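[job 0412] stage=fold_complex status=start
inputs:
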Amino acid sequence: MRRVLTLFAAQLVLWTLVTTLNHALTEWRVYLFPGALYVAFAALLQPRRAGLAVALLGGLVCDATTPVAFGTHALLFAAAHLILFHLRDRLPKEDNLGLVIVVLFANLALFLVFSLGQIRSSPSPAAVWPRLIADLACTQVFLALVTPWFFALQAQALGLARVPREQGA
Amino acid sequence: MPFKRFDQNRPFLTLALVALAWLLIPTAVKSWGRASFFELTAPVTLAVSRVRDLQDFWALRLRSKTELIEAGRDLARLNSSYELAVQQNLELQAEIARLEGVLRLPSYTEYRYEHARVARRDFSGWWQRIVIRKGRNFGIPVGAPVVFTGGVVGRVTEVHATTSIVELITSQTVKVAGVVEGDTRPLSFQGGVNPTFAPPTGIVEFVPLDIIVGPNSPKRLVTSGFGGVFPPGLTLGTIVRVEPGSDGLFKSGTVRLDERLGSLTEVTVLVPVGQP
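[job 0412] stage=fold_complex status=done
writing structure:
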């Protein structure tokens, strides 16, 4: 329980940071969607149940603050968590570069699936893609910069809460 | 061997169970969950917004007294012209009330102006909306129109305890009835694509064939007052291009929206008088 609450608190920090950045970027019409960051640490380095709970909680926060069907982010993050968890023994997680690459690929997949789900309500879906691609490019740059920091933040938070950092499934 | 295969597929079975459990949860529980999670994040949104205000305050404190004096002088000039406009407005309102009485016309909806700070702007390729720092505590109703100095901002879509969410007219899901300034025939406005590093645009449809718009002669698009949400005469944007539609009966075109919609800090909610 303490593990879940600690990681959820870290997710709230991430959510605050991202919404503040998105607020500042509205003048340039750029939007960051770092969905994979809510999932990656828990999926790669935490037990399955706790990680899944954290992914679901992070998703519900995103659902409550965006105009999508409640549960969209939660189920998407849960799916991403379970896939990453399933593959985690074969993924690089010892060095920052490997982690960043995993997060970038996971975010690409999440962004595309989420976009395909949302774009149905658009009257001119084809016209929206250039904007979405620009947003995706900016998000990936943001993720490359922020992922090592956010992983370190979560690890430190777990240390402060006296929760063992890494456990098996 | 079958056990190993089951173990390999266990994550996907878990996902299927989670999805099934989610589908079985009643809608009321989901609505309660959504409201709870929103209220959980609302204090964070408000705190960040207030810190931003404080930052602006201290930044303004660095301005010199000369700048302050100049700003005060400009403000006094503006105030004098606004006072004149208020007097003319009062006379016009009295005239409207007299004509409504004589012609037995239904009167326009009256509004209470509720000014609100913008706590968060959220403009993605999928949606454009803002969170304002007033909600049920100030009697903001769902559906209320929201305006700023440049015209229409959008309408309130969700009201929470201390915050409300406003969907902007730049959103592709927003449709408003408008008229070309000086014309009475209604046409349809819809939010369009908001390209990166470029001003937002909208789409206009059902434009009468005799309305000519060119790069050198753009037309102002204002609200028509039909539909009952927005009062008439509020600026939606500027029609910059029209071309004949496929049916040949109407034209359709592009509306350039106010760039300041991307940097809103304060808006006004028009609360219909008489509503809770």
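[job 0412] summary: Chain B has a mean pLDDT of 88.
[job 0412] exit 0
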